[in-house]
Amino acid sequence: MNRFLNFLSSIRWQDVVDILVNSYILLRLYIVFQGTNAFRVLVGITSLWIVQEIAASTGLILISWMIRGITAAAAIIIIVVFRNEIRAALQARNLKTFLWGFPAHELATPVDIITDTVFQMAKKRIGALIVFPGREDLGEVMHGGIRWEGKVSQEMIMSIFWPQNPVHDGAIIVTGDQITEVGVLLPLSQRQDLPSYYGTRHRAAVGLSERTDAFVVVVSEERGRVSIASDYKITPVLDNETLAQALKKHLKISEVSPGQRRGREKLKLAVAGLLSFFITAGIWFGFTRGQDTIVALNVPIEYVNRPANYEILDTSADEARLLLFGSSALIKSLTPGQVGVRIDLGKAAEGKNTFTIAQDAIILPPGISLNKIQPTVIDVTLDIPATKTLAVQVDWVGHLPENLILTHVSATPDTVRVVGGSKTLEKVSTAYTAPIRLDNLSKSGSTTSPIVLSPPSLKLAPLSPDRITVNYQVEERQTGERK
């Protein structure tokens, strides 16, 4: 129970937003692509990915590698093969429709009109070829169509297929209650097992059913019979009721009441939403909680909550070496700002303080765990800040030329005020300039030099100059004067 509570406490609000947003995106993809062949292939690829993760977690390296290659290739293939379906699904009129709208259900095709018309044409031996598209795009398999956009009626259908009409040999496309195209040429089936008395219309119907999920109704003018082609096969139909049921099944026209239909749709969406959430949460958990990669990082140590009346005089370490492990995805995405070590000086006292680096002192993103840290103990020396006036002394280095002698030196100013720990200042009485080389002096003059404070924990007080003007006087050495 404690482990579960610790897990919940490690989840940030950003993680919750991340899961919810991606769950909604997954749900929208389901709503937009449901019922298409592309969606079914995506489900298959997702299943392969789940199997690959299980194989990787159980150590089945070869199986995991093989499935990873298959899924990578399949992801490319689905974009190429189903590009028309994907384009049709993504052609939303506006951003609102795509982000939170629902695909508009097409008006139910007047099935009774179509079935009555089809059997009327069968009695009169008028051939016909009527296509009802499914979810797949027909643009790449049909040719020669003429835009029509006429409302479905018995008179309209019979006039199109009347033998004297120029477009009677082609197919018509019915979408909703509209005839959208006439005179369409369909691909012919090359199957050898079809009956010999099947003519061009029947072979065209079978050919379209082999390539798409369309539903095709065929009327034979020679035999006066009605057939339907779908899912690679063609079947004779003997009465209106059978044809009407087949059409309703393809068009997903339910016999239930509108209220029941809405209830089923809401339940379906609720289930899809829950599945999207659990799938996204599972993927997130796999990315953030997988432990398959180890990395070592050198991280600066940050000292916080230092008492106002103390200064940090010295520390035993300025950075810590962390050995971290987690999923490869998270390890690769680590940035310096996400990892840190903080030492709380709130309870520190004057002098030397020893701190053990505890788990709560280490800052890590979710999903990253600490394996080892060096050092485990830090010494921090604190002191009370104080101000002191130090005499300035020029730091000469090197040697004057043999014929010269330094007779006078003065520094302006000759004192500086410094700030530092009181114990440190007790041991310091002089501030030095940066080294000035005697070798470069040939005559009297002046130069400026910065102040160098030692130890480095000392700082110049506000308004105290950081550079000193050094005036020096050089004279010729008298003959016989001691060098």
Task: Give structural notes.
This protein has 4 domains: 10-102 and 270-288, no CATH class; 111-251, 3-Layer(aba) Sandwich (YojJ-like (1); 293-383, Beta Complex (RNA Polymerase Alpha Subunit, Chain A, domain 2), CATH 2.170.120; 385-476, YbbR-like domain (RNA Polymerase Alpha Subunit, Chain A, domain 2, Beta Complex). Helices cover 35% and strands 29% of the residues. It has helices at 2-9, 13-33, 37-57, 61-81, 83-90, 95-100, 111-123, 154-160, 200-211, 240-251, 258-289, 328-332, 422-426; strands at residues 128-132, 146-151, 171-175, 178-184, 215-219, 226-230, 233-237, 293-304, 311-315, 319-326, 340-344, 351-356, 362-363, 369-374, 377-383, 385-393, 396-397, 404-412, 415-421, 430-433, 436-437, 445-452, 459-460, 467-476. Helix 2 (13-33) packs across helix 11 and helix 7 packs across helix 8. It is elongated.
Helix and strand topology:
Elements lengths: L1 H8 L3 H21 L3 H21 L3 H21 L1 H8 L4 H6 L10 H13 L4 E5 L13 E6 L2 H7 L10 E5 L2 E7 L15 H12 L3 E5 L6 E5 L2 E5 L2 H12 L6 H32 L3 E12 L6 E5 L3 E8 L1 H5 L7 E5 L6 E6 L5 E2 L5 E6 L2 E7 L1 E9 L2 E2 L6 E9 L2 E7 H5 L3 E4 L2 E2 L7 E8 L6 E2 L6 E10 L7
Parallel strand pairs: 1-3, 8-11, 16-20, 17-21
Antiparallel strand pairs: 1-5, 2-4, 3-4, 5-6, 6-7, 8-10, 9-15, 10-14, 11-13, 12-15, 16-19, 18-24, 19-23, 20-22, 22-24
